[in-house]
Amino acid sequence: MIIAVVSRKGGVGKTTSVVSLAGALARLGKRVLVVDLDSQASASLSLGIARGELAPSIHDVLFRKLPAAQAIRSTLTPGVDLLTASADLMHADVELAPVRNRETKLREVLAPVAGSYDWILLDCPPSFNTLAQSALVACDHFIVPAVPHFLAFDGIQPLIEAAARLAGRYGRSSGFLGVLLTMVDNRTKSARAQASALREKLGDKVFDCEIPVNVRLAEAPESGQTIFQWYPQAAGAHAYRLAAVELLHRTGQEPADAEAGEPARMPEALPAPAAIGPAALPLAAGLPAAAAGAVALKAPAPALETTAEAAPQLDADETAGSPIN
């Protein structure tokens, strides 16, 4: 199953959603490949790859005929592999311009490895460029992340319509799964009103699950791990567990693990994470391992037991901060 996470706007939690959903699906026993198509390489950095260690990347696969299997590498998150992005993708539109049926190029290069994974998640560039269009042609379904803000909602309907036209051109269904609301702060009247208006407009094409504003989600990329290794008791981790289960339901699958359906358990104030040494990330197809020290990692804070007498409380900053794009 190939899922594209696409938005014409930056800053809506797109990359955070890709990385966190990958972690959640892996916890449910799924084999996951993240394909970073954004020249900023935020998903690659969030999964522990240093900027100087991005090669070989999806750019090499698309334009230098490197087999995808030789560019895929493992990550610090068990069950999650990665095809990195690179700054070279800034020129992808120009490089794809002379290619016949260029929108099918991504689907073609991923086909040899698709059978090795239960889920392939595509982190698209924040635009509707040729690479994003290629992702929409390659995917089985797509998700649009959006923050509950008037301007953020403005471009959703045109994106859905453009994706439907593109799919029709290649004889495919549009595959629109729904809008995933991110960075939601239900303490504000505006956020509640905007979310309600979107649900009224799109109906069941809005995920029931909402991702709250959560500082732990903003911190996780620095660790090179998903929120589930960094701070598994965070409200953001629980929300993405529920989002992953809803994703399974919306695609006609059932979760392999009942854990994600458990009631929310808010964390107590936890001690600051302790630093650990650098770690190298081996490539999945026998390529040289990433240089030691490529990324400095921090260990997630340990979970604390709670009792009925001591109800868990959120950290003071648990609801602050924003995920990365």
Protein architecture, described:
This protein has 325 residues and is an alpha/beta fold. The chain has one domain (2-261): P-loop containing nucleotide triphosphate hydrolases (Rossmann fold). 35% of the residues lie in helices and 13% in strands. The chain has 13 helices and 8 strands. It has an 8-stranded mixed sheet, sandwiched between helices. The longest helix has 16 residues, at 235-250. The radius of gyration is 19 Å and the shape is globular. Residues 257-317 have low confidence and may be disordered.
> How is the biggest beta sheet arranged?
8 strands, mixed
- CATH classification, class level: Alpha Beta
CATH topology: Rossmann fold
Runs in which pLDDT lies below 50 for 5 or more consecutive residues are 257-317
Distance between the termini: 23 Å
What is the second-level CATH architecture?
Answer: 3-Layer(aba) Sandwich
Based on CA atoms alone, the radius of gyration comes out at 19 Å
Structural class of the helices, strands and pairings? alpha/beta
Tally of strands: 8
Helical element count? 13
Name the helicity range.
25-40%
- Overall domain count: 1
**Mind telling me the CATH superfamily name?**
P-loop containing nucleotide triphosphate hydrolases
Order of helices and strands: EHEHHHEEHHEHEHHEHEHHH
> How confident is the prediction overall: mean pLDDT?
83
Report strand order across the widest sheet: 3-4-2-5-1-6-7-8
Q: In what range is the share of β-strand residues?
A: 5-15%
Shape: globular
